[in-house]
Specification:
8-stranded parallel barrel
Length: 206
Amino acid sequence: MTTRIKICGITRPEDAEKAVVLGVDAIGLVFYGPSPRNVDIQQACAVVDSLPPFVTPVGLFVNATEGEVRGVLDRVNLGLLQFHGDESPKFCIRFNRPYIKAIRMREDVDLQMEADKYGQARGLLLDAYHPALPGGTGESFEWTRVPDDLPTPVILAGGLSADNVGEAIRRVQPYAVDVSGGVEAEKGIKDWRKMADFVAEVRAAK
């Protein structure tokens, strides 16, 4: 099965357009003020409007209020929601949109339990744990911790780049991979060559 690719932290239409040319399946828009990759409504709409059919715009939220999420949904045409904080299953389903749930890989995390807990999620995005940051750390976690029998599709994130994504795919065999910092020239600005190299390594992985 082809491993899907999401490039997160897109802030400019020109970066989204380059990702599309490379065959990326989804782009991520960060709606989280403290992030250097945060976008406002105008930026988000410009990116989404640049996308062709079958490329999914994903909105990332971190412990946002219901009003904040709905405020974005009223103005930005998102295809998928990504909850990257401590959101409950009840909160995640409140918006009647497909969603994925990020799981920060603490030492004591039980992925089988999380898959059961977020049973309506379209996938679990597994990211490195950092006590002070909800994501975008540039750090990876031990891939052997991912069981091969999870009932929910796995989206692998955390410190991925062209240098290690092939090995990550061979070990975990995820449904998709998610990259942000690993394809950047600077925070929020993507690098064409790094994106191209990343996509090539994903396609070559068996």
